[in-house]
Amino acid sequence: MPFNLNAVKLLTNNELWFGKPDTQNDPNEAEFILKYNEEVEGFLDFRIIINEELDSLANQTDSGKKSPTGFERLEFEKELKKIVRGYLGICSMSVKCDGILMWAHYADNNEGICVVFDKEILNSTLKLDFKKKVTYSSDISKATFVKNGNVGQLISDRLFYMDKLENWNNEEEYRFVTRYNDRTPQDDLDRLESFPEDAIVGIILGENFPKEDFNQSCILEKSQKGILLLEVCKEFIQKVDGYNSNLR
Question: Element (H or E) spanning 55, and its range?
């Protein structure tokens, strides 16, 4: 991750932020293809509260017509996915910390840091809906939508918010997901989840990490408490191999 204010807050406050799917870098995050007048073998039953706008759009599409126009479908699906994704909070990690592309894409071109967590501590203390590796598929999840009064029921063939296209499989993502029941968080503070201090077991500094930032109090404080500090170098893969094994 970039070494910025968010990183400092994570290290200082011991809190993880669970963003909406549209804050992720994958344009197909939490994506599903809505099927009309077709049955989808249901795996996931996702319920939402229908607002006035979605209700109006639903009456013009699936609930009101057997063959809605392309524009009607587009407007309905746009609003539906906006609501569904608002109920989700995602915190993305990885089971590996030695990927060159990962450091380039997610750590500010090697100027950032990698925070190493103890997976078992996070899994046992974070009271969330899902804590597991992401699955990678060759296609996008399929779903149907049923309106029952002011409640909408989305039935999908798999966990669409734990599923990504296989183009991303090199990231080996481990994902934490929370579903905010019957509400969409209105403030970023509502999307913070605390974790115990001993969940952090290491901090890896990027190869281009600014030396002037090394003395930041949050990093020094962690090192003084026995948390291992590593610096990316030629022997980096050998140094973190043990961490990779522990995280899987």
Answer: helix 52-60
